[in-house]
Amino acid sequence: MASTYTLPVQNLIDHLGRLPGIGPRSAQRIAFHLLKLPAEDVQRLTQAITDAKERVRFCSQCFNFAEDDLCPICADPRRDSSVICVVEESRDIIPLERTGEFKGRYHVLLGVMNPIEGIGPDQLKMRELVMRIGSEDVREVIVCTNPNTEGEVTAQYIGRLLKPFDITVTRPASGLPVGGDLEYADELTLGRAISGRRRLDD
Amino acid sequence: MTSRLYRDEAVVIRSYKLGEADRIVVMLTRENGKVRAVAKGVRKTHSKFGGRLEPLSHVAVQIHRGTNLDVVNQVETIDSSGRMFGDLDVMTEGLAVLEAIDQLVPDREPVPEIFRMLVGVRKTLAERPSALVVPAFLLRLLASEGVRPELDRCVVCGEVESESTPLVAIDLERGGVQCRGCRSGVGVTSGALALLRDVLDGRLGEALDRAHRPGEQVLDDPVVVEVASIATRAFEFHVERRLRSVAIFERHDARSDS
Ligand SMILES: [Zn+2]
Ligand SMILES: [Zn+2]
DSSP H helical segments within chain B, as ranges? Predict the structure, then answer.
């Protein structure tokens, strides 16, 4: 299909279309929006992207985003270093921090095992996790990967990988979303909620 | 543009993230073959689909045929993937089965026999899992495609197995086993040959019962390991692609560590 746009416009649409979650139609809409903006606004946006790319890197310990060698969480001496919460991506740290329930440190895998796509432990920060268990004084690892098939495969794999260590490996209870009605729960979710039930007198 | 609803029975093969909260779900259906359809909002915690569209789920679906993409309208569980969900070996074996089907089956071409096999292998994985389930499935999948290795006579000279001419090798490019004099393929033990015959000649049930691991973490039988390697190579040779989910766990067999 021949492009109906001039080369620079088509080029912009192509680049935007490669971003996650942006389809061809959204790419087109964003491109047109950018072209209508004052030049200084566009300048600020490109500067923000360049700055972030230059200054942000991965924490050398947990692979969260960081401006220095360590991310703010790893650098904070008040965090409990005996508990590590394993997540798929940096963005998963935000909702966990918002709960206010977790005081330990994190480990970001930078992805999730997806055997069909050929993504195995070697493509993730899995070896680095094992090395942390060996060198830091870790007592518990909480595997907080997404509650879907890839997340579960990854969690089970980590459970097996860390078996030789004298630590507790846990997975957050998988249950019914608060605010939902039981009758709408699917069988997989409900089944797992039942098998992971807890005593009421705890 | 016409668009309409259709109903079918399906097993979910895989899915891809789409946009903010959607997924494109690839499933093998009984009547419409391999179908791709958008599940809107499925990644949200309060999605009406919940875990019903996870890989290996056996479901009844209602799909809206769109102009560009089909859209999943309703899903009811026939058998959830829950029974397989907590076991790493079973899950990875299930994913290997799904990958093989995804590679072999073209879109929108009804393959009722393969659908029936898929429903069967799900049941086997849930009820009597073993390291033999995936290799047996791959071999039978190939057989259903008309690709069945010759196991009883040398593919070069035609000699039937006997005391004096044992069949000692298998060459998948030449289509089967070979005697010592004609050997060009890799060696095969008589145990593996017997198991291959069991799998392909209607004695699969007994073979699966023997290979079943009721307890935890039994070290795999070397004959099963040999058959697994032959089955994987046969399948990869046929589709001319690697089975990625098998390759990942070949190198990382945590099973043997424990
Ligand atoms: Zn850090
Ligand atoms: Zn021969």
Answer: 82-85, 88-104, 112-127, 133-144, 190-200, 204-211, 222-239, 244-251
- Pair B235, B144 in one domain: yes
Contact of A156 with chain B, judged by CB distance below 8 Å, is answered with: yes
Smallest CA–CA distance, residue A122 to chain B, in Å, is: 9
Is A174 in the B-facing interface, judged by CB distances under 8 Å? no
DSSP B73-98: EEEEEEE-THHHHT-HHHHHHHHHHH
- Chain B, residues 66-95, CB within 8 A of chain A, namely 77, 80-82, 85-88, 91-92, 95
- Give the class (CATH, top level) of A76-170: alpha beta
Ligand with the closest atom to the CA of B158: 2
Asked whether residue B169 is assigned to any structural domain, the reply reads no
User: pLDDT for A154-166, tens place per residue?
Assistant: 999 999 999 999 9
**Distance between CA atoms of residues B10 and B28, nearest Å:** 5
pTM: 0.86
Structural domain boundaries enclosing B233? 130-148+179-257
**What is the C-alpha separation between A59 and A79, in angstroms, rounded?**
16
Q: Which CATH class is domain A7-55?
A: mainly alpha
Query: Domain segments of chain A: what residues?
Result: 7-55, 76-170
Instruction: Give this complex's ipTM.
Output: 0.86
